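Section 5.1 Outputs to date
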Amino acid sequence: MRSKVQKLSPSFKIWLRGKGGHVVGEGGASLLKGIEIYGSIAKAAKKIGVSYKFAWDQLEEMERRLGVPLLLRRRGGAVGGGAELTESARMLLKQYEKMERYVDRVIQDEDTWEAISLKISARNRLRGVVKQVNKGDVTSTVKIEVNVPVTITAVITREAVEDLQIKPGDSVEAVIKSTEVMVAKE
C-alpha cells in the first residue's frame, strides 16, 4: 500500500545579524511593530503573547548587539508611561520587513524555482549540441542543434555564456519558457 505525501511548500525565517550575532528575527520585529502601533512595551508584549519581562529582555539584548538604543521610554506616573521607537529602531524594522517581503516574493515565484531546476516540466526541455556562439557586448546568441532535428537560437547574457563556459560541441538543454529560451548545462 502506497502512502500519499501531502504537497509541501517552502517556508523561511529571517534573522538579521550584526557583529554580535542575531539581532532581530520575527519575534523581535513583531515586538518593535507592536511598540510602534501601541506606544507601549506592555501592550505590544501582550499582543504578541509574551511576558513583559521577556519583551524587556529581548529589547535589551537587541540594543546590546546593535550598540544603539531602540526605544525612547517614558516612565509611568499619573499619566502613565510609554515607549516609542528611535530612528534606529524604525530603520531596523524597515530593513527586516523589506528583507521578509523580498524572500517571500522569491519563494512564492514559481519561475524562480524553475530557474534553479527544481520544477521544470519535460515538455519544455530539449537536449542538443551547441553549434555556434556569438558573444556580444551585453547579450550572446547560442545556436543549439536539438535531437528533433531542429536548431534553436537562444539570446542570453554574455555573463551567462561565460559562467556556464558554453562553447561549440557542449551538450546542453534548451529550456523553453513562454517566449524565452534559456540554456542549462550540467
